[in-house]
From TrEMBL:
Alphabetized PROSITE patterns for the sequence: S4
Domain RNA-binding S4: 8-36
This protein's UniProt keywords: RNA-binding
GO molecular function: RNA binding
Biased segments, Basic residues type: 113-124
Region described as Disordered: spans on this chain: 113-141
InterPro entries assigned: S4_RNA-bd (IPR002942), S4_RNA-bd_sf (IPR036986)
Pfam families: S4
Superkingdom: Bacteria
Species assigned in the record: Rhizosphaericola mali
Name under which the protein is recorded: RNA-binding S4 domain-containing protein
Compositional bias annotation for Basic and acidic residues: 125-141
Length: 141
């Protein structure tokens, strides 16, 4: 990429595969989940707009659904590329304490399906319950 070309933050985050779609990257910027870390700023990280231009050696703090990232820009991509090529364009400098939080994330997802043997009784359980409530002895044959 030539130095005269400009690259938006949302497009960059999408191209290095931190977000699945460019609109998700833009939404993250709009919601304040993407911040630039300025070394000489006493105020700390500042939120960025999706239209902000990305420059080499800038450090960004990004919060995705999966984890928190702190990355340093080492290369600029205008097109989305495969993962092995994408990781060559940023350096992950996330502190160890932020990586430890990910370990405690739930390992299963709530799909809406009920767990096995929990919830409604099976046909056999229902028959046994009806027999018990009626007071009739069970028929064993």
């Amino acid at each position: 990429m030539a130095d005269s070309e400009k690259l938006r933050v949302d497009k960059y985050l999408w191209s290095i595969r931190l977000f699945k779609t460019r609109s998700q990257a833009a939404d993250a910027c709009d919601k304040g989940r993407v911040k630039i870390v300025l070394n000489n700023s006493a105020m700390g990280p500042q939120t960025v707009k999706a239209s902000r231009n990305v420059n080499l050696n800038e450090v960004y703090e990004i919060k995705t659904e999966a984890r928190k990232w702190v990355i340093k820009v080492t290369g600029l991509l205008t097109k989305r590329v495969g993962y092995p090529d994408a990781i060559k364009n940023y350096e992950d400098i996330t502190p160890k304490e932020d990586l430890d939080i990910v370990k405690y994330a739930p390992t299963s997802f709530h799909t809406g399906k009920r767990l096995s043997k929990i919830g409604h009784p099976s046909k056999k359980d229902r028959r046994d319950l009806e027999t018990f409530m009626d007071g009739r002895p069970e028929e064993d044959e």
